[in-house]
């Protein structure tokens, strides 16, 4: 008898005294007698504040808001630090699937990690719901039947921040790009959008993930004469780039910095004195309405911070997965996948969201400007809402994504 079968049998036997009539049939529909979800992300490196332990708390909040159980079937959240390394992430995911009976994995910060785990999950016929990685390739050329992209992607960031700055006269761009899949995708998407609006890309330079010194890259950007320096990086990389650009006086000249992926967590860490005036795109903000403010306060009590779009995307993905399992009456992958495509997304993160055939969840995005210190009324009062970008405009249509599943 395998360990998993032994655990399932023990759970079934233990339940005979307490579960209602029909519970054994319910157990049979759930592998291992437990619904297990994994939150796999960076908890110690460049993107630790971007998602990290706060995404784990967001997942736990989703389970609690769902009710903690499904028809008396317990729901368990596992988590691990992939250290931004695809091989480590794949090893953890394989162990979760093969040994621990995990049904689905969420977050997956870092595009190279997300692509690797999504590929493994396709082979294992397991569901991934990416909330922390950006590359649109996840629902493009490398889409899979069981892969979903939830919070944002490089195209939405390009349309939001890139589009806004071009409209404001920023028609020449130089990119400072993280040297891996995410950076390439963000530079490519933004370049395409800038050019489509009549702008021009005059050059680019690439830096390693988690670099310490950006001076040589910034000097190249400064020397290019471009009106906009597009930061195709994220997390601490973006924060450190902005700090050093401020020290060089770049933002005081005729060049503007475009933080193409920058969230509330990084803005808070950087401080308004340095971050003020930045234009950025997020999929959520705690101060949009009464509902978001109430959730933000709940999250604050648990974590000591307000959530960003990655944390909220993880909350939404976990909650929607559980809704899909409930609708399917099983955690069997094909049945749950069908429900994930069919069910509307309606929660505190996304209102009126829908999932396209390629797995892209479409929802509104928001364009913000970081406030000046004098404009802020409290520690987390950091954004001015400039515009709402409708989901149909922010995200590519499935047939335009390059996903082979939509081109049959």
TrEMBL record:
Keywords: Amino-acid transport, Signal, Transport. Residues 34-371 form the Leucine-binding protein domain. It holds the Pfam family Peripla_BP_6. Coiled coil: none annotated. It comes from the Bacteria. GO terms for biological process: amino acid transport. Residues 1-25 form the signal peptide. Belongs to the leucine-binding protein family. This is ABC transporter substrate-binding protein. It comes from Methylobacterium planeticum.
């Amino acid at each position: 008898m395998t360990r998993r079968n032994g655990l399932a049998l023990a759970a079934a036997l233990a339940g005979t005294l307490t579960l209602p009539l029909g519970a054994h049939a319910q157990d049979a529909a759930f592998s291992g007698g437990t619904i297990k979800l994994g939150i796999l992300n960076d908890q110690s490196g460049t993107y630790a504040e971007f998602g990290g332990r706060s995404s784990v708390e967001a997942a736990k909040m989703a389970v609690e808001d769902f009710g903690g159980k499904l028809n008396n079937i317990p729901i368990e959240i596992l988590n691990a630090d992939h250290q931004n390394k695809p091989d480590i992430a794949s090893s953890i995911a394989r162990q979760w699937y093969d040994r621990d009976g995990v049904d689905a994995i969420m977050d997956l910060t870092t595009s190279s990690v997300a692509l690797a785990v999504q590929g493994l999950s396709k082979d294992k016929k397991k569901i991934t719901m990416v909330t922390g990685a950006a590359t649109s390739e996840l629902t493009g050329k490398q889409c899979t039947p069981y892969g979903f992209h939830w919070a944002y992607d490089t195209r939405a960031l390009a349309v939001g921040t890139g589009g806004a700055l071009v409209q404001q006269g920023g028609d020449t761009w130089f990119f400072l790009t993280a040297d891996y899949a995410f950076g390439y995708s963000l530079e490519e998407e933004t370049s395409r959008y800038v050019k489509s609006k009549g702008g021009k890309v005059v050059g680019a330079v690439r830096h390693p993930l988690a670099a310490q010194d950006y001076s040589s890259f910034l000097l190249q950007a400064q020397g290019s004469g471009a009106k906009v320096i597009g930061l195709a990086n994220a997390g601490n990389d973006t924060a450190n780039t902005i700090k050093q650009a401020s020290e060089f006086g770049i933002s005081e000249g005729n060049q503007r910095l475009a933080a193409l992926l920058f969230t509330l967590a990084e803005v808070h860490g950087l401080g308004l004195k340095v971050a003020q005036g930045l234009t950025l795109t997020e999929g959520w903000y705690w101060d949009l309405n009464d509902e978001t403010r109430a959730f933000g306060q709940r999250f604050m009590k648990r974590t000591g911070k307000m959530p960003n779009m990655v944390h909220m995307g993880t909350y939404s993905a976990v909650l929607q997965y559980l809704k899909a399992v409930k609708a399917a009456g099983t955690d069997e992958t094909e049945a749950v996948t069908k429900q994930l495509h069919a069910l509307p997304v309606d929660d505190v993160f996304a209102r009126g969201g829908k999932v396209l055939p390629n797995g892209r969840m479409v929802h509104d995005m928001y364009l913000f400007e970081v406030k000046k210190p004098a404009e802020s009324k409290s520690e987390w009062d950091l954004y001015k809402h400039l515009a709402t970008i409708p989901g149909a405009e922010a995200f590519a249509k499935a047939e335009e994504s390059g996903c082979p599943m939509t081109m049959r």
